[in-house]
């Protein structure tokens, strides 16, 4: 497996992705990986490598800026990094679309076959990528925030998959229902898989704060990744 860091920009903001792929004679589909609220750290990079092991190019994108990271358990720091983008969805869309452009320009990538996946805050990011009308085949939100911002949506061209913990206090049932109504009205090809007795951040073994609503679930993680594999097989 080949791994490397890749510099790219959103306007004047320098960004740094982590790219992983296995050597091959032909170009591969691209899967963008959007990080949680703590930034493009080990968890996102490991996910990019997992994508590479499936035969794709994994591109762990950067929403915060080169060298800018949060930390596990530091809600104040992570919120200070996430909230400006969560509150300005137009800026968020520009940032995640910059990653799409950079990923498509990688020589090993088949630029027609592109998907995006994201965790928590990253789930919000890939859903906004879809809402921006980006030409991607599919997006996957993994325990992501489903609520939209106040910007106008473009026609959704990608298939949409949401993997959700039913007990997630950050995404209550009414938010899920509103999202389903939004996707239906948009005539999107959408799926929501909800896992019972499952809270936020269920794929992250470092998540261990029941009072905050983040709890790792080995069962939900295995189920969600199998669904992810099936989804990527379908769209590619």
TrEMBL record:
Residues 16-235 form the Dienelactone hydrolase domain. It holds the Pfam family DLH. InterPro entries: AB_hydrolase_fold, Dienelactn_hydro, FrsA_esterase. GO terms for molecular function: hydrolase activity. SUPFAM superfamilies: alpha/beta-Hydrolases. It comes from the Bacteria. This is Carboxymethylenebutenolidase.
